[in-house]
Design brief:
The complex is a heterodimer of chains A (122) and B (194). Chain A is built from three helices and no strands. Chain A is mainly alpha-helical and 122 residues long. Chain B has ten helices and no strands. Classes of the chains: A mainly alpha (122), B mainly alpha (194).
Chain lengths: 122, 194
């Protein structure tokens, strides 16, 4: 069985001839000047452009992240400023309200004092 | 393969190293079958095999000055083809997604094995499937042994492996193939009896 399998493998694995088109391409690969081997140059170019595209994509992603970060930071700052302004306005409103209430209290107090003076039996 | 090496003479190699177009053409004609077959059976698809064969010959064109003899040339071609094929398969395994795998499987070439002179076409087809199931290094070892007719020492040199690793790959691969072939033959026999 072992010998049979090995002979079957040998028979099955005999070299296959490439197509005539490929043969021409292969001959062109070796007969071209190595410094001007166009297909390889294209491949290197494609590989180069691929890495360039990758670098550009990384740079674009970094720019996008920075822009988003800056935008978020500015928005946060704006919201904080708005909050501080609102707080200031509330404090101011409370201060004015307190003043008015104090004033009203003083008026009421003085009026009730004079009423007691005018009507001692009441 | 050995026939191809004999066809390409030392004089032609010397001329090829000087850039003689006829000698370079003879070089390609002598070695293209081996390189293409190794690439095809390693990678499984015709397109990838053609690309790899072209890359290998382009690389040879750049390194031809360093080739010392016909044997060195054959060794260099086998080594570069198998190593680059193994690298591609490993890369493919890393990047593989389900859809790509399915695509590759559908595109697998149906002519990985030469049926001419084959005694059992069914067995040949079965062996083809079994070869595809082997790991890339094991597949390279089997191809170098049974396609290129190299002995384990030369295979170890070509793939930069330990001789024991080569023997172990060969033994294990043949064992797997034998077991699965026996299993398939038995199931075929059972089917017939049914």
């Amino acid at each position: 069985m072992s010998q049979d399998l090995e002979s079957q493998l040998r028979a099955a694995l005999r070299p296959i001839a490439p197509s005539a088109t490929l043969e021409k391409k292969l001959i062109a690969c070796v007969t071209d000047d190595p410094l001007h081997a166009q297909p390889k140059a294209n491949r290197i170019g494609w590989a180069g452009s691929r890495s360039r595209i990758r670098r550009l994509a990384i740079a674009a992603a970094a720019c996008l992240l920075t822009a988003v970060g800056l935008h978020n930071g500015m928005q946060l700052r704006r919201e904080r400023a708005t909050g501080l302004e609102a707080r200031r306005q509330v404090v101011e409103a409370l201060r004015v309200t307190r003043q008015k209430l104090n004033l009203a209290y003083e008026i009421v107090k003085s009026q009730s004092g004079s009423y007691a003076d005018d009507n001692p039996g009441a | 393969m050995n026939e191809a090496v004999r066809q390409f003479t030392d004089d032609e190699l010397a001329l090829a190293r000087k850039g003689n177009p006829q000698a370079l053409t003879a070089l390609v004609l002598a070695h293209q079958r081996s390189v293409y077959s190794l690439a095809l059976r390693m990678l499984g698809t015709r397109d990838l095999a053609e690309d790899l064969a072209q890359d290998v010959f382009m690389q040879l064109n750049r390194n031809l000055k360093s080739i010392e003899s016909r044997e060195h040339l054959a060794f260099w071609l086998r080594k570069v083809t198998t190593c680059r094929a193994i690298d591609q398969l490993r890369q493919r395994a890393r990047l593989a997604t389900t859809s790509l795998d399915e695509h590759t499987h559908l595109e697998r070439d149906t002519h990985l094995f030469s049926d001419a002179g084959a005694s059992d076409p069914l067995l040949q087809r079965h062996l083809k499937l079994l070869l595809e199931e082997l790991s890339p290094p094991a597949r390279a070892v089997v191809l170098l042994r049974y396609q290129e007719d190299l002995d384990p020492v030369d295979i170890a040199r070509t793939l930069e492996m330990q001789i024991n690793t080569v023997k172990s790959h060969l033994k294990r691969s043949l064992q797997i193939m034998r077991q699965k072939t026996l299993g398939a033959c038995q199931s075929r026999g059972e089917d017939k009896s049914l």
